[in-house]
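thread: overnight batch results

M.L. [08:02]
morning all. the overnight job finished for the chain we discussed friday. pasting input first so we're all looking at the same thing
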Amino acid sequence: MNMKIKLAATAVALAAFSLPTMLSADDGLKYGDLVHCAATSLVVAQVLNMDDGTEKDKVTIEKMNNQAAALMAIASVGGKKDTNTVIADTKKEEDVIIAILGSSDKTKSSAFIQSEVPKCKTMGEAAIEVLAEKK
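M.L. [08:03]
and the structure it wrote out:
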């Protein structure tokens, strides 16, 4: 298991442990959407981390990884899934997103970037706020 996955697993476990059980899918959050946005955040962080962008984009990379962990924690609690399941589902979704972004159909990747990245950024920011409030 690579270091990013280990860190994400730890963050998910800690955050999920600290959330009260009242947080659930009844809050209008769907497990699939949470996993999708967690994966999107991780892919954005990976893209920013390429080409020696680590130092230049360090704050944004950290923010995207934190958003992914928060989304995964909420997915775990709300979806009543264990950490390993959430991580595996997020990894599968990452593969789908990477395929979209790597597609020869540039309209497909452009549409994804224009619609999904901002939506997931907003959802990730909200997830961080929810976790901060629930502590």
